[in-house]
Amino acid sequence: MSLELTFWWLLAIKLAVAAAVVPVIGMVIGYAEMKLSAHMQSRVGPYFAGGRFGWAQLIADGVKFIQKEDIIPEEADRPVFKWAPALVMLGTMALLVIVPVHPSPRYGIVRDLEVGIFYALAISSVSTIGVLMAGWSSANKYSMIGGLRAAGQLIAYELPLVLATVGVVIQAGTMSMQGIVSAQVAQGWPFVLTQFIGFAIFMIATLAELTRLPFDMPIAESELVMGYVTEYSGFRFLFFFLAEFANMFSMSVIAATLFLGGYGLWGINPETLLSPIILFAKVGVLVFLMIWLRWTLPRLREDQLQTLAWKWLIPIAIANIIVTAVLKVVL
Amino acid sequence: MESTFAHHLSEAAVSVELETEGMTLNIGPQHPSTHGVLRLVATVDGERATNVRPVIGYMHRGYEKLSEVRTYPQIITIINRIDWVSGFANEVPFVVAAERLMGVEAPPRAQWIRLVLTEMARISSHLVFMASYPLELGAATPLFFALRERERVLDLLESVTGGRFHPNFNRLGGVKPVYAAGPTTKKAGMDIPSGFLAETRDAMTKVLATCDEIENLVAGNEVFLARTKDVGIMPVDVAASYGVSGPNLRASGAGFDLRKVSDYLPYSEFDFDIPVGRNGDCWDRWWVRLEEIRQSCRIITQAIDGLPSSPLQAKVPRIIKVPAGETYVRAENPKGEMGYHLVSLGGLGPYRLKIRSASFSNLSILPWILEEALVPDFIAIMGSLDFVLGDVDR
Amino acid sequence: MTASPSENSASETAAAIEEFADRVAGAVGGRAEVSHGTVKVRVAPSSWKEALTVASGDLGLVFLSWLSAIDWTNEVAVGDEPDEPVEERYELLCAVSDLSDGNLAIISTDLSHDSPSIASVADVYPGANWHEREAAEMFGIDFVGHPDLTKLYLPDSFEGYPLRKGFPLLSREVKPWPGKVDVEDMPENGTGPSTENPGA
């Protein structure tokens, strides 16, 4: 009996793995954030759940959320309100489809697309629609302001995010994620060395896309109570909660792929099973960076955020593209 | 004719569209950043406020009326609860007012202990501000730095008075009743506990170190500067006409501190500076409070070095009746000017006690200062005024 | 620290307070009283607003400390009645201060019990706005010309004026004011309850 699986079986398994990764990674990062923030603040953090180190804290939280009543406000636009969290989650899951974890074209990636980056940037905006839906349908002024802030913020930061990746695409000469990684593996060094400006802009824009501090105005507990998630409870709240952490993962994984050489590392044969571990280690570093910033910085104001995007990040990103393009031709 | 009508109609539709209607945003009384039960009814256009109306009174406990039906020692217990973040400092002006009417003066040691504990209350109150203000701007970590130090100070307060928030330690004519009911053997422990002076000196060093740490963490942060500089500017004349006092007034540039000009406690024997701000913005209000913590540490260190020895209690009658008369004694409390206008007709309790609390006046400037402000700046400005709702509503 | 310098400085302070009181009284056209270091200047109700305008302007008392009232009456619902009869009136007080030497003056005026009404000073001291709203709801004083004399603390439907002496306090209705018997004797006298641990 052949171990070769048919295309459809393989696809189904890959999709199932990609879908399962989201909640698992969400919980892992959620736990990491709890523990790391605690240690940054001279606290202990989760301690009792699971016996040691509170490792089961997020599982316990998940069980708690599932048990809670699903409250839908009287005035809410019910179908929109109900589907918004699903849409947010969907955007995150769909992003993982194009992430290469191994050079093998058959097992290393769910589907390698010719326009991989394009797809990634497009699909990551789907969760924005979910956020807007949540803000609009909650029939709450705080949610509404939060949703509108999110819309303004995500439009403003979509641009630098896209522009920051252009430099990488020019250097690699392809938009396929697998192609970009193999280009870096082939040349032996990651693009972050030449595209450092692009990387920095990408990470800043990513923080804004994720609505994490210092760009968490759409949630802004001290101003908008909880922004667009104010009215959510129970399982639907859990969706937003997990999506935030899973989104951190998926955006970091894209950044690691584009700028940090994906699964490639000096002197290590990418054909081994070490590849996924290398990728996850790089992702871990980026996630740690995000958590570190989250617990250090205060929140910007909405107009300061727009100023940063339009007056600084976008012009710098464009200049970066021009310089990269010129050098590509000249060298 | 019909086309003209249609034209008018379409024009009307356009003008309706252009004229955006202000949205009423109700912030509070249950809201993460209103420090309790303050309610703001704001009319906002987008995120810019056109009109803000504060609604208070959700915590009105009627202390002025309650004071009329209580004896003087009983009143000390309830006025602790006015500004619960600096409970001890609330007691002092009231006790001094009653003592003045009685013609009694607390012995030096009692006065110095009052002074030390008042400054500790100031440190603990300002540390709460240092904790909560960055939190309102989104930075959660300074909270833990500040509250850790506050715990040290509260431990010291507790070791002397037995209470962390509501010490109830002042007595008319001194501190802590030396002639209290109870076994005589306990009387030896009526003074400050042994080891207190050394612990205080140690704690002050640590508080000063944490001040540097907080300054490094918060003041060195570009985002924090961007959120607070030139936000919520309060000119000194406007501030004064609203009765804004304390650190908020000094941040606007007035070097006015009742500790320097009034004699309710022997501050004239101490060497300390009055930090004064320049612009009267949120940043200055933050900075002034941080400096005040340092100055308070200075005062406390001087005080424990030279604590005079004397009885803790002046001779007062067993049943206290305050002679007829009236006086107003005000004190520089952590939040600002706190004063008691005490009117006595010679009874067991006051005929009328007007409580002038700092946060009430500090908050009354909100409609002026929040006009044309952005919703995120609401939080920055309100937080920088550092009010306690118990102190507003009394 | 010897006694004489502090006594000297105390008498100097007293002289300075007297001088300040006279200056304020002269400027606002009132009668000065100094009681326990507190300066009070009585003016007529008709010149109330004028007096505070002068205080905030020429006298430099720019800082509004507080504004409130006292209900002087011989019939009280709770608490002790005055031993000696007082003149029935509302006394309106406004404490203003400068921002340099810490001189504080309480400007005071008397309002009749029947129709307490006075000109608002909310345009002289903007901070008086809330204080006047408080005095209005607590004492029933009408401040003419106030921009928004609605209730400040109390619910809009609240009836009565709580800080008037005639306003009963529910808790004292239930458990009456113990008055002058509320004090136990010293334990040494043997009449009060013992605080010794009976088991010891």
Explain this structure.
The complex is a heterotrimer of chains A (about 325), B (about 400) and C (about 200). Chain A is mainly alpha-helical and about 325 residues long. Chain A has twelve helices and no strands. Chain B is mainly α. Chain B has one domain (about 25-394): Cytochrome-c3 Hydrogenase, chain B (Orthogonal Bundle), CATH 1.10.645. Helices cover about 50% and strands about 10% of the residues of chain B. Chain B is built from 16 helices and eight strands. Chain B has helices spanning about 1-20, 65, 70-80, 85-100, 110-135, 140-160, 195-220, 220-230, 235-240, 245-250, 260, 280-305, 360-365, 365-370, 375-385, 390-394; strands at about 25, 40-45, 50-55, 170, 175, 325-335, 335-345, 350-355. Chain B has a three-stranded antiparallel beta sheet. A three-stranded antiparallel beta sheet of chain B has the order 6-7-8. In chain B, strands 4-5 form a two-stranded antiparallel ribbon. In chain B, strand 4 and strand 5 (about 175) form a beta hairpin. Chain B is globular and about 70 Å long. Chain B starts with a helix and ends with a helix. Mean pLDDT of chain B is about 80; it is low at about 10-15 and about 180-190. By secondary structure, chain C is α/β, with parallel strands linked by helices. Chain C is built from four helices and seven strands; from the N terminus they run H-E-E-H-E-E-E-E-H-E-H. Chain C has a five-stranded mixed beta sheet with strand order 1-2-5-4-3, covered by helices on one side. Chain C has a two-stranded parallel sheet with strand order 6-7. The N and C termini of chain C lie far apart (about 45 Å). Chains B and C meet through helix 2, helix 9, helix 11, strand 6 and strand 7 of B and strand 3 and helix 3 of C.
